[in-house]
Amino acid sequence: MIRCKTISRRWVLPVIMVAAVFMSGCATNSGELAQGWPGSDRPRTTVDSTTTGILDPITAIAAAQHPLSKQALQQIGIRYRYGGTSPDNGFDCSGLVHYSAMESLGLRLPRRSTEIARSGKPVKRQELSVGDLVFFNTLGARYSHVGIYVGSNMFVHAPSSGGVVRLENMTAPYWNKRFTGGRRIDPVMIANR
């Protein structure tokens, strides 16, 4: 059972990249976003719709080259769990960032999104780079949610109860109006704190 779980996660990133290449020729730009749940502007997403055809080939390659975003992309499909910090137990948003930073960069970030926000250098939205952290106000606090930017306005995050780690578009109305900033993690700066 554990072996199958490891093998399937190992293939997530290559499958995303191959699917992005093939699906990019099928994509259309109607200018419309996916409809959200009734009475909500939150976008409706599933594992299937977020793991194929969203990242263009150039973005997929760039995301795969950055250790932090690569590690986060490998967690797509892992279930959300409040307080979760590992693929075996599930992730919450800060747990995903904490785990990905430790595994890919050997960097121990704080466990709360508000504390993580103090760990990096502020980055304007238009200057975000692959591997930057993105923050959102989802619970009435400036930095109540965090994800990892993978390029082309896309980010990886652990959304909420009942969900799984997934890709989402920052320009979707729900995320766009809740975006509160980006942070660039500098391992040297954090180590010297």
TrEMBL record:
Which Gene3D superfamilies did the record assign?
Answer: endopeptidase domain like (from Nostoc punctiforme)
Q: Which residues form the NlpC/P60 domain?
A: 62-186
Signal peptide: which range, if any?
1-27
Q: Which InterPro entries match?
A: NLP_P60_dom, Papain-like_cys_pep_sf, Peptidase_C40
- Enumerate the GO terms in the molecular function aspect: cysteine-type peptidase activity
Q: Which terms under GO biological process does the entry name?
A: proteolysis
Keyword Hydrolase annotated: yes
Task: Reply yes or no: does the keyword Zinc apply.
Answer: no
Q: Which Pfam families match?
A: NLPC_P60 (PF00877)
Q: Which PROSITE patterns match?
A: NLPC_P60, PROKAR_LIPOPROTEIN
Alphabetically sorted, this entry's keywords are: Hydrolase, Protease, Signal, Thiol protease
The family note in this entry says:
Belongs to the peptidase C40 family.
What's this protein's name? NlpC/P60 domain-containing protein
